[in-house]
Amino acid sequence: MVKPCKQSPAGMQCKEEDLKSFRQWGSKIPGHPENFETPGVEVTTGPLGQGIANAVGLALAERHLAARFNKPDAEIVDHYTYCILGDGCNMEGISNEACSLAGHWGLGKLIAFYDDNHISIDGDTEIAFTEDVSARFESLGWHVIWVKNGNTGYDEIRAAIKEAKSVKDKPTMIKVTTTIGFGSPNKANSYSVHGSALGAKEVEATRNNLGWPYEPFHVPEDVKSHWSRHTSEGAALETEWNAKFAEYEKKYPEEAADLKSIITGELPAGWEKALPTYTPESPADATRNLSQQNLNALAKVLPGFLGGSADLASSNMTLLKMFGDFQKNTPEERNLRFGVREHGMGAICNGIALHSLGLIPYCATFFVFTDYMRGAMRISALSEAGVIYVMTHDSIGLGEDGPTHQPIEHLASFRAMPNILMFRPADGNETAGAYKVAVLKRKTPSILALSRQKLPQLDGTSIEGAAKGGYIVSDDSSGNKPDVILIGTGSELEIAVNAADELRKGGKTVRVVSFVCWELYDEQSAEYKESVLPASVTARVSIEAGSTFGWQKFVGDKGKAIGIDGFGASAPAGRIYKEFGITAEAVIVAAKEVS
C-alpha cells in the first residue's frame, strides 16, 4: 500500500443529513462523485468513460512507484485500483483509448467491474450497443471474467476478485450481469429507474418485495458492525505501513525522501533553481524547444515528474532524455507513450495527478487537438488535478499544415474555463516562468501554448514577470502616462516590441506589455494592475494570432484588438501573418488611430 497523503477530518465526514439532502445545495452528496466535495471520493467522474480512464492513471501510478521504490526486502508500494463502469462508459471512445493502453502496459493491479445491465437512458442497449464487450476487452489484452448473477451471487463476485488478483500481467474486467433497479416490482430492468427516483409508492413496494422492514435511513446493527470493522482494520494497516516505512527509511534514505516528496507533495528545496534562464544574446528558438529544455531540467529535480505525448513526442519536443519509456517491462521509466489517444491521455493524467500530490504529470499534442481532449481537461480543472498540458503548434505560425491544424478560438475558449491557467509564453524566460507556476499550482491545471517557429529571446522578459500574468516589458514613458500601450502574447510580443520601436522614432512614448497568462493577471492587486494598464491611458492595442474574443476587457472601448476571427490558411508562416495582418505595420496604424 501507499500511505494516503491526508485523511478527512471528522468534521468533513458525510452524515445522515447529507444523505437526506442528496443533490441539494450544501450537501456533501452531489449528483455525481466529486473529489473536492465528498470525503473518500478519489476522482470526479460524471462524464461517462472518465472514471475508467482515471483508474488507468491511478493504476499506472501504482505500477510506476512500485517499480521505483520497492526493494527485495521491502514492498512499500502495493495496492489495487478498482473501478465500476457501465454500458454507457463502454460506449464512449475514451474508455477504449484508456483500456487499450492499460492492456498494452499490463497493469495487473487494475480491476474493473462492468455493470452489465443492458439499460441506458434511451432504453435497452439493443437499440445501439450490441458488440461483444468481453471479446473486445480480451483483444485489448485484458483478463475477462463473467459473473452471471450479479444481483445475489456474492460468492461468485468474491471468487472473481480472487481470480483477478491471481493474474499479475494483465488488467482484469469482471463482467457482472445485473438487473437495474433490482427489487423494484414495477421499474426493475427499465430505463425509468436509470436516473429518476422510484417515488414513494414504488419505494414502499420495493421494501415489501425485499422484506426490508426498517425505517428510512436506518442501518441495522449487524450491517453497521460489519462495515465499522474496517475503521480499526484500516488504522492497524496504516500503523503497520508506518513501521515498515520507518525501516525502509533507515535502509534507503534517498529513495524514502523521494517517495515522501511524491506522497506529500512537498517539493525539494531549491527545485526552481534548475529552470533555465535566457538573455537577448541567447539564440532564437521555438518555444516548443525551450519547453523541452525546461521539461528535462525539471525531471532532474522533481521525483514525481513524468509524462508524454499523443504520438507527437518528436514534434511536441516532450521526451525526457535521461529516462526511457514506461512500458510493461520497464515501468520505472518516465516517458509515457500514449499513442494517438488524446482524450484518454488527458484523463489518465488526471488519475496520475490525483493519486499523489507530488506526482506531476504532463501530456502533449498540437494545440488544435485539445478539441479531442477538452472533456478531460475540463475535469482537470473541476477536480483540481494539476496536470500540465504542453500544447505546441499554437497558431497560424505553424504554416503549411493549414486551417485544420491552426488554432483560432482555442485561447479564448480556455480563458473562459474556470480554474485553468492558459499560458502563451513569448520566449525562454516566459516559458520557464510558466513551468514554475504550473509546478507550484497543484490544484490548478496549466496549458502552455507553444510555437513551432523560432522566436527571439526578448529584452525585458522574466520568470518573475510571467508569474504575474501580465507585466511591462519595455516603457519609455514617465509618470505612468504612456501615449499608447501595446499588448502582445507569445510570438506576437516580438511584433509589439518592433512596432513600439518604430512608434518611438516618431516621437510617441510607448509601453509594451506581455500578457502571458490572463488568469494570473486577474489575481493581481488593483494597484498592480493600475501600474501596468493605467485607467487614464485608453490608447491600447493588442495583437494575438487568434480570436479577438475577450480582448476588449483589456483594450477597452477606445482600443483596438488585432487578431484572427476566421479560419487560417495553408502557406508559409511569414506569408500567412502578412495576409492576416498580424504585423508590426498593422500595430503601428492601429496605435496612431487610437492615440
From TrEMBL:
Any one GO MF annotation of this record: transketolase activity
Leader sequence segment: none
BP GO annotations: pentose-phosphate shunt
Keyword presence, Magnesium: yes
Domain Transketolase-like pyrimidine-binding residue range list: 285-457
A GO CC annotation given for this chain: cytosol
Keyword annotations of the record: Magnesium, Metal-binding, Thiamine pyrophosphate, Transferase
EC number: 2.2.1.1
Cofactor(s) needed: Mg(2+); Co(2+); thiamine diphosphate
Record field: transmembrane: none
Database matches in SUPFAM superfamilies: Thiamin diphosphate-binding fold (THDP-binding) (SSF52518), TK C-terminal domain-like (SSF52922)
Catalytic activity: D-sedoheptulose 7-phosphate + D-glyceraldehyde 3-phosphate = aldehydo-D-ribose 5-phosphate + D-xylulose 5-phosphate
Cofactor binding note from Swiss-Prot or TrEMBL: Binds 1 Mg(2+) ion per subunit. Can also utilize other divalent metal cations, such as Ca(2+), Mn(2+) and Co(2+).
Residue positions binding substrate: 194, 288, 315, 393, 401, 405, 452
InterPro entries associated with the record: THDP-binding, Transketo_C/PFOR_II, Transketolase-like_C_2, Transketolase-like_Pyr-bd, Transketolase_bac-like, Transketolase_BS, Transketolase_fam, Transketolase_N
Active site (record annotation): 342 (proton donor)
Sites where the protein binds Mg(2+): 87, 117, 119
Entry binding sites for thiamine diphosphate: 46-48, 88, 117, 194, 369
Site (Important for catalytic activity): residue numbering on this chain: 194
Pfam families per the UniProt record, alphabetical: Transket_pyr, Transketolase_C_1, Transketolase_N
Quaternary structure and partners: Homodimer.
UniProt cross-references to NCBIfam families, sorted A to Z: tktlase_bact
Family, as annotated: Belongs to the transketolase family.
Protein name: transketolase
